[in-house]
Amino acid sequence: MANWTALDIPPQNGRSAVITGTGGLGYEDALALARAGANVIIAGRNDAKGAQAVESIHATVPVASVRFEKLDLANLNSVAAFCERLRGQRASLDLLINNAGVMNPPERRETSDGFELQFGTNYLGHFALTAGLLPLLRRGNMPRVVTLSSIAARGGAINFDDLNAQCGYKPMPVYSQSKLACLMFAFELQRRSDAGGWGVTSLAAHPGITATDLIVNGAGRRSLNGRLRRLLPFLFSPAWQGALPTLYAATSPEAKPGSYYGPDRMGETRGYPTLAKAPPQALDTQAATRLWMESELLTGGVFAAAEQLGQVLE
Predict the structure, then answer these.
(1) Using the 8-state DSSP alphabet, how is residue 125 labeled?
(2) Residues 6 or more apart from 251 whose CB is under 8 A from it?
(3) What average pLDDT does the segment 77-81 reach?
(4) Pairing relationship of beta strands 65-70 and 39-44 according to DSSP bridges
(5) Assessment of whether the complete model's pTM goes beyond 0.90
(6) Whole-angstrom distance, CA of residue 205 vs CA of residue 200
(7) 240: which of 3, 26, 118, 168 is 20 to 30 A away, CA to CA?
(8) Alpha helix (H) residue ranges in 235-301
(9) 12-42 per-position pLDDT tens digit
(10) 123, 175, 248, 260: which one is catalytic?
(11) Domain holding 63: CATH number?
């Protein structure tokens, strides 16, 4: 795995991938996979940014098989509609990268369904998306789901008494909770795939500290992190490098089911892919089971519905 880069991605010809997010890490994932021959769907809520991403990839890889599909992770109806469209368009899916997210809006905001924006977008939206695409993934060729966490998960805690930060909102702890939830979901998805015979490999990854627009779009350019992003760019890895742990988890034959990957240097803040150290709270299986059950209640039983649909489609 030493100094693994996108040049080490095995040929992806014939494989299909859905990646959430039109810029930053999502764009780098899409570009690398398209260059390797995959059929790529970029999913995001901004049509203009989606079209720009597709155009840019085609400019770099003229023969790329890549297109954009509308998806708003902050709206469960949009997630359901996206999954229904894909189930109508294709018979299977080989790779899902749960990448898109929002970080540290200074004031509490809500999704269309009334969830706190970070928990609802980063975690619940991807929880519902994975469920909706599960019937396609189960018919995929060695299917994988890669869910993005963050080094911020180290300081995260799942507040089961106030998952949606209604009693008190602090941007960073709420962001950390959402990314811890993503990591716990990735591990629990592998356990449930093994128990249920789904045949889906679930992995997690984080990019370290990376130069994307996530901070600026969330906390704002005038926030402390936004100013650091502008004034001290050397603190941040380029997006192409931050994407490497995700791409390793998504494509490497050596990537292990249920594993977590991140950068290998400076406390996992930068570098090349390696096994990341999961925080102890992410390994609490009882909490993970409770989080799954709570997420099913909040999203309307999306995984139960996916299993029923899978049985109908078999």
Answers:
(1) I
(2) 9, 10, 12, 33, 36
(3) 98
(4) parallel
(5) yes
(6) 16
(7) 118
(8) 239-242, 244-251, 285-299
(9) 999 999 999 999 999 999 999 999 999 999 9
(10) 175
(11) 3.40.50.720
